[in-house]
Amino acid sequence: MKNTLLTLAFASLAALSAKAQDAEMAQAVVNYKFTHLRDTTQKDKPYTEAMVLFLGQTSSVYRSYDKKLQDALMRKQMEQQLAEQRGNSQINIKGSSTRPLTRSEIFQFAAKNKMVRKEPVIMTTYLIEEDMPKINWKITADTASFGSLHCQKATGRFKGRDYTAWFCPDVPFHAGPWKLNGLPGLIVEAYDSKKEVEFKFESLEEVKPSEKPATTEAAAPAPGMGQGGVRMFTIGGDDPNADPNLIALPKEGVRASPKEFANLEEARKKDPQGFAKSQMAAAGMQVAPSGGGGTTNFVSGSSAGGGGGSVRSVSFSAGPGAGGASEINNPLELPEKK
């Protein structure tokens, strides 16, 4: 760990003269166990999720590790079933999604004083840019160790909660989990006064260069499926061929203000099916009537009688365990008391 700290400190010195970048390779990654008591009527059943914070010289991104694993599993299932049904004019894919996980990702650009929230919605990825939240931290003389990391204590109020944060001045990245920021060092662990929200430190690791994953074979055209074959994608997911250690905003992301995205979310809540159909249509896909039992049918390619092209339909069944989010009467962000 000592060598890790020295390496990170050296890298940070180089960043002092570097210009802020929108895309850069991560140098370190912090693993957190995120705990949130979403339903106060079930205090013995808090929501938990493995999260990661990728740290670059001038930026960071906080995302769900569990979501990445779930996406990889679902993609593998789709690849196997596409291979087994190659040549069919209609493909039936059964998934085994277990639970809804955090889709949003938080990018911090400290040098620019900007924060960007990446929100995948059906076939579109929205980018919501805001100024970096300002937290009035009070640094105390209290210290504690997390593994070999020697940390100082700070307290501050943010989004309706009183937080305690432990930061490490020896790790010179001014970042933290979620939207927490603004301390002279890495925020290693944080929790609110009621312990309803907690970002528990698991580990700090140096990032080793990774090989770019090869394009999946299942994405190739399948015999008998017409020109173009079956296009592989994960709804709300990332490009599986992208380097996982790259901190970069998607080029195809749609910029939206916080108000615009809030209105979009409200429209989705009012009419989920209609919203999904409009999103699919905008992406050039048709949504056929549901087959029942949690099955959704997607039709791509040319329509019947459209000039000789074949109609390709794909039905996806989420399978047992899939469903909406659990009851939330205690959101992560609370309104400030007046």
UniProtKB/TrEMBL annotation:
Residues 1-20 form the signal peptide. InterPro entries: GLPGLI. The keyword Signal applies. NCBIfam families: GLPGLI. The keyword Signal applies. Residues 268-338 are annotated as: Disordered. It comes from the Bacteria. This is GLPGLI family protein. Keywords: Signal.
